[in-house]
Every structure is written in C-alpha cells, then in structure tokens.
Amino acid sequence: MRLLRGLAFYAAVVAATAGVASVGAPLWMVIAVAVVVAVLFEMLVPPPPPRVRLPDLAAKPVAADSRFEVRFDDEMVVVLYDGAPRERVTWSRLRLVGIRIDDAWLPQPWWLLADADGGCTFPSDARGWEEMLHAMGERLPGFDHGAVIRAMTLMSGGVVVWKAGDPSAPSPHLNLRGGDPR
C-alpha cells in the first residue's frame, strides 16, 4: 500500500511539473506547482491504515495465576511458592523424575523430582515449567518424552519419566497414585 501511494504521488508531481514546464514556465513556477500538488495529494489521499500488530501465536502464555514457580541453574532446581523458596533438589543428587495426577478436583499433573532425601514438586502450570521440561530433556540421559505425553493424558495415577542409573534398582519412595501433593 505504501509503495502504491508513493508511486501515485510521484506520478502526480511529474505530470504537473511536466505540464507546467512544457509551456515554458520559469523554474520557480515548476517548483511551486510541484509543492502545491504534493500538499494537495497529502490532504486529499487518505494515508494507509495503521498496521495492527497481531499477537505472536508462538508466544507461550504465562501462568500468571499459578502461585508456583520453578527455577533452575547448573547446580539445582528450586520451587517457589508465592515467591518464597519452598523446595530444592540438586541436579547431581537427582534420582527420579515422575509425574503424578492430582485428581482432587480437576486432573492436574504434578512434577516430582526426587533425591535420596526427598525432593520437590510443582504443578504443570507453574511459571517456568516448560523451560524446566526442556532442561530435563537435555540434562537427563534417557528422559522419556513419550512417558511425559502419556502422563498428560491420564485422569489419575502417575508415571516415572526418568530414573538415574539402573532402571530396575529401587527408587526413592514416591506417591504416584494421585491425590493432593501439597
């Protein structure tokens, strides 16, 4: 649209100045006609409508209403509740990652990260959970993305999505049957 408008403006100025110049008018008159045509063009031809910026469909919604947030760095994972640290686990001591479905009201997936002494839990709507999922896939060899997908379709119960070392070895006690993990 901007290109067409510019071409129309250029054509109007050239036509007006060529017509005045062809009758032998002085240079100042040719310039005056060009300026008048330019001003009239700007006044009479409406500008193109402003561009409306469409929302980025790839942008991820922020779970602003979740009171949980999960943060991590190269050493540890920290779960915050209302902005205060609640639980933490170090990557080096992590032994098991599971997903448990809280079916107390509506099915809600909860992530469980366990070490030998406990670990941490956070819901799948916690701020930072998608970045955490990506980090687990990169940091934990054998992380089962298929099990994550299966877990997200469950109405109750739970799934182990990663286990350190020998998969047949006993794992830390986790309640993967469901219920409120808080």
If you had to describe this structure to a student in words, what would you say it looks like?
This protein is an alpha+beta fold. The chain has four helices and seven strands, in the order ααββββββααβ. The strands form two sheets. A four-stranded antiparallel β-sheet has the order 6-5-4-7, with helices on one face. Helix 1 packs antiparallel against helix 2. The chain is rod-shaped, with a radius of gyration of 32 Å. It starts with a helix and ends in a 19-residue tail after the last strand. The C terminus is likely disordered.
Give a brief rundown of this model:
By secondary structure, the chain is of the alpha+beta class. It has 4 helices and 7 strands, in the order ααββββββααβ.
By helix and strand content, what is the structural category? alpha+beta
Count of distinct strands: 7
Q: How confident is the prediction overall: mean pLDDT?
A: 77
Count of alpha/pi helices:
4
Oligomer classification: single chain
Radius of gyration equals 32 Å
The proportion of residues forming helix, as a percent range, comes to 25-40%
Sheet with the most strands: spatial strand order: 6-5-4-7
Order of helices and strands: HHEEEEEEHHE
Shape: rod-shaped
Task: Note the main sheet.
Answer: 4 strands, antiparallel
Unreliable residue runs = 171-175, 177-182
User: What is the CA-CA span between the terminal residues?
Assistant: 57 Å
Roughly what fraction of the amino acids lie in strands? Answer: 25-35%
Keywords, please?
rod-shaped; 4-stranded antiparallel β-sheet; 7 strands; single chain; 3-stranded antiparallel β-sheet; 32% helix; alpha+beta; 25% strand; disordered C terminus; 182 residues
